[in-house]
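Still learning. Show one?

>
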Amino acid sequence: MILEVDCGNTLIKWRVLDGADQLVRCEGSARDEAELLAQLDATDIGSLAKCRIVSVRSDLETHSLITALELRYSMPVELAESSKTLAGVTNGYNDYRLLGTDRWLAIVGAFSLKKSACLVLDIGTAVTADFVDGAGVHLGGFISPGIKMLRDQLGVGTARAAYLPINSSATHTPGQSTAEAVGRGTELMLLGFVGLQQEMAKELWGHEFSMLLTGGGADMVGTHFGEADIVSDLVFRGLALAFPD
């Protein structure tokens, strides 16, 4: 069995793969190291051969988790880092080490899936958009605040609107309360950002590209972009390519 862990800003996502056929045996998400270890202890994960991790958390948090997993399960733990090239994809940053590792792995996972030009959007705490051409060259991308971050910022002055549910509005007519105005306004900002990325991709490649959505807000965005593919495990796909069996 192989344990895969994606330590994001908000949640630690994990899954266990059967080493033979790479099927997902179990999966979950936790807020921190203690909750993750408790979930693993309570789950029939079998005998773990190794673990591969991607993390955007602090070095202290990341290495604490690595040490805990090594001690508890007596297995090697591999930590992914951004690289210049991986699985046919060329990193487009001037300094490849500065591209967030989770973002890099999502890009690699997307291209490995489509083998053609891709617009890769990760709808999370931050929203990232990355462009990869048909030869696997990452052209760069954009980063914007995610919808919860936008709403939290507005919540400083409008406490009642601070924690609106992150889902798709039934309507985009003007809001008739502060909560409606904040909810619909921030959703429109996110959808406008995504729509602009799509138009830029069309300018580059016409209609010869794939649009892939991942991250916690992918389903909400996907309701407005029916042509997009929602692939929840893009980061894990890239992680597996970084550390093949």
Q: What stands out?
A: The chain has a mean pLDDT of 92. The first helix runs from residue 33 to 41.
